[in-house]
Write a structure and sequence with these properties.
The structure holds 2 protein chains of 2 kinds. Chain A is α/β, with parallel strands linked by helices. Chain A contains 19 helices and 20 strands. Chain A starts with 5 loop residues before the first strand and ends with a helix. In chain A, about 45% of the residues are buried. Chain B has 12 helices and no strands. Chain B is globular and about 85 Å long. Classes of the chains: A alpha/beta, B mainly alpha.
């Protein structure tokens, strides 16, 4: 198979976008090829052009994008094809699944009708046969109760199930090539593992080639035969997976391989005082209800949880989406109404009203996941960072605040000269540094970090993890670190709480949890992360 | 869904009650009354008239009497058009205003959405700019300019349409007023549709539809358009309520015996019962059309559920 001629070959592909600042080149003349039945990975960080390469091949570039070069599929150049000809190939011979399972299906149509439409279009089946085929495909991707699911709408399904439906749609017409653009990035780790296994099984069964576009080296190592490493629109290295991992040649590849967060956090000194403690904390949400609508449904998002955070300790709270981990973090900071006891230092803060909480807010800070949405686009970085000072230290003069902003930005590794710029001029990693500076300028004692690294590239994640650890050391901070990413948690936390459906299923010292997880749920959660850890030990 | 509709109609009762109460007392706060106009009635006649209509009673008694009559479906007599009850005025005028308003609404939705979709598909190209320019012009030129221009060109210069009048609802008599009512709405709908369609075309599931090799027709009409309709639906509800209850400008310029002029005339003349009647009619239309919008939402978008 390895000697077979390629079925897809990309030659000197260039992709550019017209923008207000002139033409931006996303892909600068790359060559790659895919042979029948093999698994190829295109690896790179955000902005490397890895997605745009395949978007161009599929004719899916945004309207301001254009591509030159050739994308040869079995003797035909896809780039030059008229749309009607291209539509006979895409969805049929070459199909694609995307990173965003939550939004990639049409919310207004049932799963069944969305599956049947491409089947009928490409194979000309009648409605009854197409329906039977749709059912077979849902069974193929192992969706429970497929008959019922045909009548479901996307919003009634989880992210993992939606991605299975996407896979079913992509495989509906028996493609030669399946392009998977970050197919598991938006999913919980346990679901990630299931989807990857499904793809591998399906490939074995159906024999199509798979092109993985990913930043996740764990996926590459497990699944790919060959790897292309992309950076700034160019392929910097290519080769067999084994060779790339054992003897990377290009510096960028080496950097990527070393980019997994490493190191450990030592536990706090014995006898370190408890700074923030929750006892029997419970958060409930009412769903529905109202005038003549009957009683509301009660959802117990956090169910009587007790947690004690010591000075200089980092407690990692892990769990899948919906496990209540973010809700717990917010409740402990009194940002959500809850019942139970919450003590900060010596003080019970559970009953304090907004006014009485305000002076304590500066010591209890929160950093969010989304470095794009959590900074006001209309304020300069200097204003954003010093906004809290206006509330908590109203006596400061403008010059004093400016001095504090310079200090804070320098501390998080940003050039203070940039404080008069606006957030959109910064990268994701820089924005997260700004968000951290905004919290640190108030000299807090407890910081809740809610997925602070999840939206970032691996190499940037590593830097942020190191920054957070340094800040903790320097200021004796206590962290509640909320994350679904176990390799980051392992590097950050000295104690771990595993949550599921609002309850703690397991807790303990980080190493103990990773080495001897007691609960099945913890073990499945660990599966993906442990895999990556092994490969790191080997590589 | 049925229980939702019943619940919504039940909540409409207190809403209407509040509106009626507020309107009743607000109009009484305005200085003057229905019978102290420049006509210079002698004090005796005025006192007689006021006594006849119960305007000398304490305000709270007048309020309760009005509510009592309203509950029986009786809007009371008009003070300034003494040959008619308010109910009769609406029975005569409302069907006319509704005909014009409904025609204008349908025209605006069809033409406006089509233009909007075309503009979105040819974003930043000639067709798009043409639609935007027309729409901007359409929403900036006031009705009282459009109406006389239509009268002048189609009525006088080319003698294609009657200049005004209702003509017992003859088709040609409706063209001018309907066009005048529809043009600004076409402009608004086209701009809304363009924005909403552009956003819809950019969404991930459209990319999926393209990646599956679906035809452009299916991508645009089947998948993009349906999602893009929601903002139009939200706009159409209040717009319908406003259009169907008549326009003073259009009805005055084209001499149409609708109800659009009542609101302003009645308020100026302190024709209390007619003001109240207009308020109640507009409130009912608004409540009903908002309910229709919410029901349509659930029809278009399966994620919207009201149980």
């Amino acid at each position: 198979m390895a000697d077979a001629a390629p079925i897809l070959s990309v030659k000197d592909l260039r992709v550019g976008f017209r923008t207000l600042d002139g033409r931006v080149d996303a892909v600068r003349g790359i060559n790659l090829n895919v042979k029948a039945g093999e698994t190829v990975a295109i690896v790179g960080e955000s902005g490397s052009g890895k997605s745009q390469t395949m978007m161009a091949a599929m004719g899916l570039l945004a309207s301001n994008g254009s591509a030159t070069g050739t994308v040869d599929y079995r003797g035909r150049n896809l780039l030059g094809l008229p749309k009607s000809e291209l539509n006979k190939i895409r969805g049929s011979k070459i199909s694609m699944i995307f990173q965003e399972p939550m939004t990639s299906l049409d919310p207004l149509y049932t799963i069944g009708s969305q599956l049947i439409e491409p089947i009928r279009r490409h194979r000309g089946l009648n409605a009854k046969d197409a329906h039977a085929e749709a059912l077979r495909l849902l069974e193929l991707v192992r969706i429970p109760e497929p008959r019922r699911r045909l009548r479901s709408y996307p919003y009634e399904m989880s992210g993992g199930q939606r991605q299975r439906v996407m896979i079913a749609m992509a495989l509906a017409n028996d493609p030669d090539i399946l392009i998977a653009d970050e197919p598991t990035t938006a999913l919980d780790v346990t679901v990630q593992a299931q989807i990857l296994k499904l793809l591998a099984d399906l490939q074995k069964k159906l024999g199509m080639a798979i092109v993985f576009i990913t930043h996740d080296l764990g996926i590459v190592r497990r699944l790919a035969d060959r790897v292309y490493v992309m950076r700034s629109g160019e392929v910097v290295e290519e080769g067999a997976t084994q060779a790339i991992f054992s003897t990377p040649k290009h510096d960028y590849t080496k950097m990527l391989l070393a980019a997994e967060p490493t190191g450990h956090k030592a536990p706090p000194p014995p006898g370190a005082p408890i700074v923030l403690e929750g006892r029997g904390v419970e958060v409930t949400f009412e769903i529905g209800g109202g005038f003549l609508a009957g009683d509301p449904m009660i959802l117990r998002a956090v169910d009587k949880i007790s947690v004690a955070l010591r000075q200089q300790q980092t407690i990692g709270i892990v769990g899948e989406s919906g496990s209540g981990k973010s809700t717990l973090g917010r409740a402990l900071l009194r940002l959500l109404p809850s019942t139970g006891v919450i003590r900060f230092g010596m003080k019970d803060i559970a009953k304090l009203d907004r006014e009485d909480m305000r002076p304590l807010r500066r010591e209890l800070q929160l950093v969010f996941q989304d470095p794009f949405g959590s900074l006001s686009p209309r304020m300069t970085v200097g204003q954003i960072v010093t906004e809290g000072l206006l509330v908590h230290e109203p006596g400061l003069s403008r010059a004093d605040r400016d001095r504090r902003a310079i200090e804070a930005l320098r501390e998080v590794g940003l050039d203070p000269a940039m404080r008069n710029r606006y957030p959109h001029e910064f990268s994701g990693g820089q924005r997260q540094r700004i968000a951290i500076a905004r919290a640190m300028i108030l000299k807090p004692r407890v910081v809740v970090l809610d997925e602070p690294t999840s939206a970032l590239d691996r190499s940037v994640q590593k830097q942020i993890v190191e920054l957070l650890r340094d800040l903790q050391q320097a200021h004796e901070l206590s962290y509640l670190f909320i994350s679904h990413d176990l390799s980051v948690v392992r590097a950050m936390a000295d104690y771990i709480i595993v949550m599921k459906e609002g309850r703690i299923v397991e807790q303990g010292e980080t190493e103990a949890i990773f080495d001897h997880p007691a609960e099945d749920y913890t073990r499945t959660l660990m599966a993906a992360a442990v895999d990556e850890t092994r490969f790191r030990a080997a590589g | 869904m049925l229980s939702y509709v019943i619940r919504r109609l039940l909540t409409a009762i207190p809403t209407l009650f509040v509106i009626v109460t507020l309107a009743f007392f607000l109009i009484r706060v305005a200085p003057g009354g229905p019978f102290n106009q420049e006509r210079g009635l002698s004090p005796e006649i005025r006192a007689n008239l006021e006594a006849q209509f119960g305007l000398n009673d304490p305000l709270w008694l007048q309020y309760f009497n009005y509510l009592k009559n309203l509950l029986r479906g009786n809007f009371g007599p008009s003070y300034n058009l003494p040959d008619f009850t308010v109910g009769e005025l609406f029975a005569n005028g409302l069907p006319i205003s509704i005909q014009l308003g409904a025609s204008a609404l349908v025209l605006a939705l069809l033409v406006g959405s089509t233009l909007g979709v075309i503009a979105a598909l040819y974003q930043n190209r000639a067709a798009d700019y043409a639609v935007i320019a027309t729409a901007t012009a359409g929403s900036t030129i006031p009705t009282f300019v459009i109406a006389p221009v239509i009268q002048l060109l189609f009525g006088l210069t080319w003698s294609l349409l009657p200049i005004g009048g209702w003509g017992d609802g003859a088709f040609v008599n409706k063209i001018g007023p309907v066009l005048t009512l529809a043009l600004p709405q076409i402009a608004i709908v086209a701009r809304l549709m363009r924005g909403s369609m552009i956003e819809s075309l950019r969404s991930h599931h459209i990319r999926t539809a393209r990646a599956l090799g679906l035809s452009e027709w299916s991508v645009v009409v089947h998948h993009a358009l349906r999602g893009a309709l929601l903002p139009i639906v939200s706009y159409a509800g209040p717009a319908a309520a406003a259009l169907l209850t008549g326009s003073i400008i259009v009805e005055t310029i084209f001499s149409i015996p609708g109800v659009g002029r009542y609101f302003v005339d009645a308020a100026l003349n302190r024709d209390y019962t007619l003001v109240m009647g207009t308020v109640v009619v507009i409130a009912i239309f608004t409540i009903v059309f908002n309910l229709i919008v919410d029901i349509l939402y659930a029809v278009v978008d399966p994620r919207v559920r009201y149980d």
